[in-house]
Specification:
By secondary structure, this protein is an alpha+beta fold. The protein is built from eleven helices and six strands. A hairpin with a 2-residue loop joins strand 3 and strand 4.
Amino acid sequence: MASHRRPKPSRPRYAGVLTTTAAAAVALSAQTAWADPAPDPRKKGVQAEIDRLYEAATQATEKFNGAKEKADALQKQVDSLQDATARKQGELNRLRDKVGSLAAAQYRGGGLDPSMQLMLTADPDTFLERASIQQRIGERDVNALQLFEAQRRELQQQRTEAARKLAELEETRGEQRRKKAEVQGKLAKAQKLMNSLSAKERAAITQKEDRANRASARVDLGNEKSASSRAAAAFEAAKSRVGLPYVWGASGPGSFDCSGLTSWAFRQANVNIPRTSQAQANVGTRINSLGDLRPGDLIIMRTDLSHVGFYAGNGQILHAPKPGAQVRYESIARSGMPFMWGVRI
């Protein structure tokens, strides 16, 4: 009887009749016995999207920085105009008192002269246009009224300019708020995607960043000569910040975004440069070739000029790269950002 039994199908034949899901499970379990599972394409897509959101957040950060810098400058102008307007109003009030005293003296002397009546009207322009009336008052009175009118006009101009600057400031503040919301929105989306990963997958991403940060301490910078004494001083200041966190909108001394690091470092060398990477791209002398860069030169990255760092020598960049990373050295070629040009301050 046993000899007539149907032989058991071989494992390959049995695998061929499994459902697709079961076959995948068998293949996965067999593979696990020998090696780690292949990366889940879906998870790789999630990580790529996180990287994309971080990059978009850093680009929006530079626009936020630009709006903030403009708003800060406008606020100073508005404050100055308002102070000047207040002073001018005080001067005008004193002149008005003087004109009033002249009018009172004329009234006590036998009635208010028509010229003084015109002087105290809301529109003194008509007074100065009437030569016949000018002849009826003394030169001192004419001078007083002319000064009063000049001050009045200047005050009105200052008020108009202050109102215009205030409107521009409010518009810029609105842009700043929109860019802040954009940055925060992209970072929130990235964090949500990060939370969708397993603890093991999140740990792998963290370990990757940790390795990049640790490798920064072992980078070989070579012995290239610095671009200038100021650039060398700024570069030394930046080197002292290695290991501190990237924080969007931050400009030191305990955390930085990309242009926050470079602008802070140059301030330590008593050099003021613009706050944003786009503005920094257009100061100093442009260096178009990587081979011509020297340590301390700025490196402008990405086609929209939204990233900046220091050339550190030996093909390395010292920068604050992105959210979740630290100020560190990195290979320019492996940074994932296209080099546009260098800037020598």
